[in-house]
Every structure is written in C-alpha cells, then in structure tokens.
Amino acid sequence: MKEYLTEIILGAVILAVFLYMWRKGTLARLRTYVLETREELRKCTWPTMGELKGSTVVVMVTVLLLGGFTVVIDVVIAMVVRWMTLAA
Predict the structure, then answer these.
(1) Domain count, the chain
(2) Which pLDDT score, from 0 to 100, does residue 15 have?
(3) In which region does residue 47 sit, left (phi positive, over 0), alpha (psi from -120 to 50) or beta (all else)?
(4) What is the pLDDT of residues 8-47, one digit of tens each?
(5) Domain match, 27 and 54 both
(6) CB-based burial of residue 27 (10 Å sphere; 0-12 exposed, 13-18 middle, 19+ buried)?
(7) Contact 21/27 with Cβ under 8 angstroms?
(8) Are 33 and 65 contained in the same domain?
(9) Which domain holds residue 51?
(10) Predicted structure pTM score
(11) Rounded Cα–Cα distance for residues 56 and 63 (Å)
(12) DSSP string computed for 36-78
C-alpha cells in the first residue's frame, strides 16, 4: 500500500485539477482553441519537398556567409585593438 500512495495522491491531484478546469469552463475553451487551430492549419499552404529543400539550402548558405563575415570582422577588430595597444 505504501508504494502506491504516491500514485494515488498524484491521481487525486490530476482528478481535482481536471474537475476544477471543467467547472470553470477551461476545458471547453481549450477544446475550442484546438479545433480552431486545426481548422486554420488545414487552410495553410504547405511547401513541397523540393521547396523545403531549396529553402533549407538558402538558410544554410546564409548562415555560413554571416558566420564567415562575423569571423572576418572579429579578426580585423582584434588586429586593430592589438595594434592600438602596442602603439600606445
């Protein structure tokens, strides 16, 4: 009995929360939200596999270019700061 006490308490808490949400109308609003979300997602135009692959390549190339740009600028700024501190 002692090993089941945690499960019994957890079940009672879950039941209490469920009943509270039901009485406050939260479950009905949650159901409405889920149904409306599903309806809106059906209206969406989803990309084809080719479009998805193309977009993924564009994103990867952009990330690489921005990463390279950041590294170059970082090296240049580090060299300028090193030059300024050695000159002083």
Answers:
(1) 2
(2) 92
(3) beta
(4) 999 999 999 989 888 888 888 989 999 999 999 999 999 9
(5) no
(6) middle
(7) yes
(8) no
(9) 47-88
(10) 0.52
(11) 11
(12) HHHHHHHHS-PPPHHHHHHHHHHHHHHHHHHHHHHHHHHHHHH
